[in-house]
Amino acid sequence: MKLLILQEKLKQGLNIVERISSKSLTLPILNNILISTEKNFLNLAATDLEIGINWWVLTKIEKEGKITIPSRLFSNFINLLPNKKINLEVKDNSLFIECENYKTQIKGLSAEEFPIIPKITHGDTISIEISSFCKSLNQIADIAVPSTTRPEISGIYFLFQKNLITIAATDSFRLGEKKIFLKSNSPLEKEYSLILPQKTAKELINIFNEKQGELKMHFSPNQVMFEYPMEETPHAQIQVVSRLIEGEYPNYQEIIPKKCTTQLILNKDEFLNQVKTASLFSGKINEVKIKANPEEKNIEIFSQSSEIGEYQSSVSAKTKGEPLEISFNHRFLLDGLLSIKTPEIIFELNQESGPGVLKAMGDDTYIYVVMPIKAS
Amino acid sequence: MKLLILQEKLKQGLNIVERISSKSLTLPILNNILISTEKNFLNLAATDLEIGINWWVLTKIEKEGKITIPSRLFSNFINLLPNKKINLEVKDNSLFIECENYKTQIKGLSAEEFPIIPKITHGDTISIEISSFCKSLNQIADIAVPSTTRPEISGIYFLFQKNLITIAATDSFRLGEKKIFLKSNSPLEKEYSLILPQKTAKELINIFNEKQGELKMHFSPNQVMFEYPMEETPHAQIQVVSRLIEGEYPNYQEIIPKKCTTQLILNKDEFLNQVKTASLFSGKINEVKIKANPEEKNIEIFSQSSEIGEYQSSVSAKTKGEPLEISFNHRFLLDGLLSIKTPEIIFELNQESGPGVLKAMGDDTYIYVVMPIKAS
């Protein structure tokens, strides 16, 4: 292999694939990045056996070939080079790198040992606008938790129905659900549902967050592939393939309350700040109590711990329905508030033991359901 | 105790004293902050028994008194309040805090149990310009390392001679020395030398880094006190008292080479970047080799590791004296380069086993001496 590439371009690719390489003691090659040529393209690839990432760039290939080298070292090294032409050449199982007055060689492992990253070449495909996809996933991805007894809820649930995508996640204490309406003219013929590993969801956000345009999603029974097109050429620039989590996602719809007994409309930042402040006094069970009385123009927030002291504050609110005292874990309440970006929120409550629902004011596409701490 | 204070002011004071409070299991009161009144001033104090900090602010005292409360909690809480008037009141061993629609009480411990923070009321005093003091200390403070066998070198050495202060630190692999010339008209009558704990040096930088004006330094045999005056009043705003490290500081002057066999003049950023890049290939002993030949207009940098690979680069340099190959620990070289702020540096070398000296071009007040890795 022998080729020329600009430092800036190589750096971009490395920053995308490098994060996936894992420190694996049993399979050291997973710590490496696969560097290979494909016609006029340089290809970088990395995998942790759950997720595989391929990145391509059009460049000047003088001689085809391939090698794998330690990804962290390669990425750190390239990041420190000046933005000039870099000469990459494979000789004697090493990668020789020359750039201006820098000259190095990095020992590699044979490309033959690198695991094959699967591609999905047929089956249904949809197109999603990237920024809305990343924003939506961002609202949901952190809610899932690793669970060995219930592996389904350690992933993010996706349901595809014609031109509607529903994304949901829960850790059994709270649940988030987001709907994305596709503008695309080619709705899916049949319904698909899948459970995406949380790690894949977070990597997708990382990789595509700043990108513009459309992301293509390819379906297969056990895997899903996300593809980002390359400008000016028909070739993809980035492909992310992920295994899916097997199993049936819980029927979470039945947890979402269809009505409420008390409704609060609150300024999000004020409420958020008071919950945060109350959390300092909430003791070991993280309990923050909310007292709402529709006759008042505000709600009260309480917390206390026998060791620390007592907290009380109030925030102005539009209140409808029955008076109520209800307690929440402040962490779950804060996560929900932080996932909403509008200045005003709607907080719907269902007596002291029913789930609460947070919604963004004027946005029906997102809900956050949070279970209360039941009075003992 | 009962008083009124603006949130912004209280926050400023807490951010200064709070850091000193330590999580002490044997003496839980050290985790607390002492809040007390002194005539028209509110006083906050914290200590870890090595360093003590006092902070005062002029405010409206309705009733004198004092209490100690957990410092982290108090500081976190005050930071989250709006910038409005805060009412502080001590009742039943608790501090009651009211601010707008917030109302809390924090359980305290008796102020009588709080250790007394000593004050130095007589003895010699000098005035130092704060920004030059903090910048100088910043160049030196990180070099010291905790040492149980040689406690002296775990501190920062200060020598006061008339209107010259010399600050030095070493970890026996490298040494930094900085000279500060005082503009003050009241030079000290006699010489003082002392060893300041590294933690105190770092706290001084933290507290005073952004401040303007003069810092007063008071001497006593076992302690030193730094005092920052309060605007408009004769009272101090901040007092930091620190114990000193006992013992005799090593006569480090004899390590500093008086001449050199090879002199290099280098662009700091270029050299720094290449040492950083070389460090990626330097293996377990952190060795980076420099090859200088006065006939060339550059120096070469090498590193290698049997596991990783090989590195080589060159950086343009003005070279005088003998040709030379010398190896350094890249961490020590990088620390030295990072402590110099000028665009050009002078690197003086003394054959392959003598110490190297880094200097800022055009600044004789600072030197950084670094021991080479001797060829085995």
Brief overview, please?
By secondary structure, chain A is an alpha+beta fold. Chain A folds into three domains: 2-113, Roll (DNA Polymerase III, Chain A, domain 2); 125-253, DNA Polymerase III, subunit A, domain 2 (DNA Polymerase III, Chain A, domain 2, Roll); 256-370, DNA Polymerase III, subunit A, domain 2 (DNA Polymerase III, Chain A, domain 2).
What would you say this structure looks like, in words?
- The structure is a homodimer of 376-residue chains.
- Chain A has 3 domains: 2-113, DNA Polymerase III, subunit A, domain 2 (DNA Polymerase III, Chain A, domain 2, Roll), CATH 3.10.150; 125-253, DNA Polymerase III, Chain A, domain 2 (Roll), CATH 3.10.150.10; 256-370, Roll (DNA Polymerase III, Chain A, domain 2), CATH 3.10.150.10.
- Chain A contains 6 helices and 25 strands.
- Chain A has helices spanning 7-17, 71-80, 130-140, 198-208, 268-279, 330-338, and strands at residues 2-6, 32-38, 41-47, 51-58, 60-63, 66-70, 85-91, 94-99, 102-107, 125-129, 155-161, 164-170, 174-181, 192-197, 214-219, 223-229, 236-243, 262-267, 287-292, 298-305, 309-321, 324-329, 344-349, 356-360, 366-370.
- Chain A is elongated and about 80 Å long.
- In chain A, the strands form 3 sheets. Chain A has a 12-stranded antiparallel sheet. The first copy, chain A, has an 8-stranded antiparallel sheet with strand order 6-2-3-4-17-16-15-10.
- Chain A is an alpha+beta fold and 376 residues long.
- The model of chain A has no long low-confidence stretch (mean pLDDT 94).
- In chain A, α1 packs antiparallel against α2 (71-80), α3 (130-140) packs across α4 (198-208) and α5 (268-279) runs antiparallel to α6.
